[in-house]
Amino acid sequence: MASSAASRNGAPRGGGGARSLAGGNLRSSSYKSRPSQLPGSTLRRSSTGSFAAAGDDGVPGRVRVAVRLRPRNAEEMVADADFADCVEVQPELKRLKLRKNNWDSDTYEFDEVLTEFASQKRVYEVVAKPVVESVLDGYNGTVMAYGQTGTGKTFTVGHLGDGDTASRGIMVRAMEDILADVAPETDSVSVSYLQLYMEAIQDLLDPTNDNISIVEDPKTGDVSLPGATLLEIRDQQSFVELLSIGEAHRIAANTKLNTESSRSHAILMVHVKRSVVSQDDTLSIENGNSSHFVKPLRPLIRKSKLVLVDLAGSERVHKSGSEGHMLEEAKSINLSLSALGKCINALAENCAHVPVRDSKLTRLLKDSFGGTARTSLIVTIGPSPRHRGETASTIQFGQRAMKVENMLKIKEEFDYKSLSRKLEIQVDKLIAENERQQKAYEYELERMNQEAQNRIAEVERNFAEALEKERLKCQMEYMESVKKLEEKMLTNQRKHGSDGIIRNECNGEDQVVSVSDEVAEVRKLLQNETQRRKASEEEVNKLNTRMGQLMQSEAGGDGEILRIHQLLEVETQKKKKLEEEVMILKSQLLQLSYEADQSRRYMERVGSGNGLNGTDSPSVNNGEKAPNSRHTTSNCSSKFDLAVGLHQILSYLESEDANVQIHAVKVLANLAAEEANQEKIVEAGGLTSLLMLLRKFEDETVRRVAAGAIANLAMNGKSSQTNQELIMTQGGITLLTMTAADAEDPQTLRMVAGAIANLCGNDKLQMKLKSEGGIKALLGMVRCGHADVLSQVARGIANFAKCESRAATQGTKNGRSLLIDDGALPWIVQNANNEAAPIRRHIELALCHLAQHEVNAKEMISGGALWELVRISHDCSREDIRSLARRTLNSSPTFRSEMRRLRID
Ligand code: ADP
Ligand code: MG
């Protein structure tokens, strides 16, 4: 494709139009203001026949050949005065006629025919300028002069024109054009000036350097002379001076070698290096996101070479060996020239082999003939008929050279260095920008942070002020409402106090009457049953006697005996049943007597105006709530023979009959309520049995009564301390804890809570209660919400706190309260002002105890307990608690400072 070929070669300046050649659509390279130089000849290019290893694509460019006729010199004017010139030029027809004789001549066509009047300027423009422009466009170029010595090769190519500007030759003019076109900041021009003599390359810029070797790039096949001096040219003046120096060196060298300039080849190599920016945008299109990115320019570098050659006189080719003493020299000089001729012949005739490697000249000019360079050849001839043969052969050489086809290729490569430099600069810029932004961002962040902190501080200040105001307001309102409520309560109490007592008395009487009736009835039943039992015992005895008689007589037979046996068994069963019934009745009787006794004593107390005892403690009475009974002795139970009875009751506890068990446990519980019995019960193993019931029994009643009995045994009596420890060692805490978790009936919970509350009063059990979940169980029971349960819980907490405070005072405890550890504080604070007096009192005491130990102060403050303590110290109706609270608050530095902070006096 034309476009891809163009993009690979780089787009030539000026954008020349497409031109079809030999049916193909190869695009010709565009040259500034140049007429097409491609003749209609068939395109000659075969890889085998190539002078150089041409690439796959390029622009065809035939070697252009111009012929220049030198004017007659002074000698010829004289010598050939009578003869006509051997050539006739027809420049307008680009033809040259070489006379054979007076009548006949051969006509040759050239690309340009330059007459003896052609100016140096015109010669340059016609022959060299297109090549120079090509070089500036990035192609290699060659301009070479060929001809017999004295025909004007040096005049055409190398004349410096010191005195006469118009006579300046191609080298000077070419450099002038090159320097005018390149940009000093991005481009560079440098030259080497060499002489090839006897197959040795000498450096005309450094005469000591006289055997420079040709180096061939194995990849591209490009030749170079790394040993040659390469000088950068910045201005025309220095170039002309350089040429003069070169010329002087040439003369000196040739004098030394005893030869003439015309016997050596002079070669000026001009290296032009130009930076260009690719106009094609394949790169950015491939990237696809050019909108985000600065369209990357594609830096290219063009390294082209202009070779200007002033060949040795061509006559040597033909005259080799004719002059004996110069044989070697002629051979060597002619080696290069004849090799050039052979190569051109081979190329012109499309030969398979081109002997490029035969000489140094052909190797150096590898790219100029059959290669990628644009090449112009100027053949110089003289007018003298005396040199007709020489002139003819020169013309033949030119004709053959015209057939050589080159394939022009731009010498362009991607400029990685420049790209990397540019990218580096860009990256540096971006890094700097990034750093700047980062700094700005950090600064902004810091500023915002500072601002936010200021704002927070201000909001906090405002909030604290508002809070303080609100708190004072609440306090006032609270105090007022408490006062009002208390007043209201007092008036209510005054109004309703007597009614309550009357009603209670009535109830009490009814209860006593009904219980007495029941007792009489049960007694009667018991008598009947005792009689029936006696009768059946007699019957059994009778039967036994009779059986003995029968056995003695042995006449009765087995059948009779069996019958009697069965009878006996039935009777035994009956007896057992009766015995059990008797036992149940006995226990019922015991219980009823006990209840009757309790009721009686209750009535007595109510009647005598005694109110409820402030320190409520549970005692068991069929699960009903009853007043404390431990200070009185029951005449009923005292009637009961404890030693015998206990033994029996404990054995009944193991009965298979649930009824019997329930009665037995109730009796045991009643007995345990009496302090006098407690020691004996425990001695007989009653406590163990009760714990066993807790462990074994699903029945709620049994568990409730058993827990009550345990609670009674753990009450603060003579042996309570021992009993409490016994409960602990027998796993009682865990059993109670489990029961607390399972039970739902408030009365069961009340008993369990009572039992635990009692244990809480024991200094030795504190740790155990905590570790076995006693405190948590206690707190867990508040879930039922029943005032009796809450009261027991509060009592337990008060007991516990009291023990802790005692231990703290004695110095045996110094850590934070286990109650606080187990999360009791929120409930304590919540219920510190519970309307039920027993709960309130317990908690008030608990708070005072907790507050006495400084390690608790922090948690108490954050938990809100301080407020309650303050309230207690002001409002508690009990003077002792009030002053205790006040003392406690005053003795704690933490509380004092917090109160100061909150401005509480
Ligand atoms: P060559 O290098 O081919 O041996 P020169 O360039 O040395 O030939 O030319 C020989 C002489 O002829 C020089 O004195 C030169 O000035 C002169 N001469 C050559 N060509 C011309 C020309 N076109 N016009 C005038 N004088 C010329
Ligand atoms: Mg010369």
Describe the structure.
The protein has 905 residues and is an alpha+beta fold. Among the domains are: 30-284 and 293-414, Kinesin (3-Layer(aba) Sandwich); 416-495; 794-905, Leucine-rich Repeat Variant. Helix content is 57%, strand content 11%. The strands form four sheets. Strands 2, 6, 7, 8, 9, 12, 13, 14, 15 and 17 form a ten-stranded mixed beta sheet that branches. The chain has a three-stranded antiparallel beta sheet with strand order 3-4-5, with helices on one face. A hairpin with a 6-residue loop joins strand 10 (215-216) and strand 11. Helix 3 (120-136) packs across helix 5 (170-181), helix 21 (732-742) runs antiparallel to helix 22 and helix 25 packs parallel to helix 28. It is rod-shaped, with a radius of gyration of 68 Å. Residues 70-71, 73, 147, 149-155, 262, 313, 380 line the site of adenosine-5'-diphosphate (ADP).
